[in-house]
Design brief:
heterodimer, A: alpha/beta, Glutaredoxin, 6-stranded mixed beta sheet, globular, B: alpha+beta, 6 helices, 33% helix, disordered N terminus
Amino acid sequence: MRPRAFALAAALLLISCSQSAVDLQDAAAGDILKTAAAHQGQEAVLINFWATWCVPCVEEFPMIVELAEEYQDNELKVYFVSVDWLDERQKAVDFLEQHGVRGVSFIKNQGDDEFIDGISREWTGAVPFTIVFGKESGKVVDLWEAKKQRPKFEQAIEKAIKEEGKT
Amino acid sequence: MKKSLMLILPLILVTTAAAGELELGSAIPLGDVKMTDVSGRKVSLNDAMGKNGLLVIFSCNTCPWVDAWEDRYIVISQKYQKKDVGMIAINPNAASRGNGDGLTDMQKRAKEAGYTFHYTVDEGSQLASAFGATRTPHIYLFSKEGKLIYRGAIDDNARKARKVKKPYLINAIDAMIEGKPVSVTSTKALGCGIKFAAKE
């Protein structure tokens, strides 16, 4: 009986894990840029760098999730990159789950200096940080530090989809 | 006309790019501006200058990266204030004075953490703006001549001081005191975005 109960519990755990659907992958800057580049010609890409204990990051996060849902059938892919400490990755997973984020997200696993410059020379290291890549060119069309309101995101996304150049 | 515009445009772009962070070799900006210190006294960067240089840290009360690096503040202050390097932490978070970054909060933190250096209020984030500082902690080191010789991170491991492989700031201070050139003059680290007064 006991082995059977154990097997059942294990099966339930597996099912529950597969349903959580958050795939938080360790990543260096190059991995993230490679992922963004894979969308060139198909979708614009918005990447948001955040941390669970970063108040402005957490404040703007739900709005970005909303945008990701609104645009998902309309030429935009959104990725979230956590800069939480690696040994606190479960907090990031929990947060993503709570906010309904599905699929691949990333957590930084590289030294700050290399990571920041690897993403963009224009990023000073402050978070939150958001970078947007154009649909056709795959090039950066906008980037910014600090929390911003929805219109700023919408403007950048529209430009990335239509490739009107950096704001 | 078109030709002259083509010549001017790159200059404008360069100027815009350079308007960001304080350039190496720059003099101390707003050196005479008096700020309220946790001691209650008014202190300027010129007041805080030591005979061998000045270490400026944009810091705050509400950032986990500051929490992680703060043990290094204490070690550095104990080691280098004795060697006549002035040290000042500046709180630029004008938009969160009522939310953990007010003077009373700063006084409490300075006492609890054992700060033996100035910790001042940057009214309206004016010094942070003049420096082009963007995050906490954000470091600027000035030589005894008052020129910027290092900017960026304290070291390469916020969380574990004993696992630091690249002590950027300590290396820069040591070189400064010995009158040698600083080998790594600019680095980056993650940090909490400064909470400037709202303008969006």
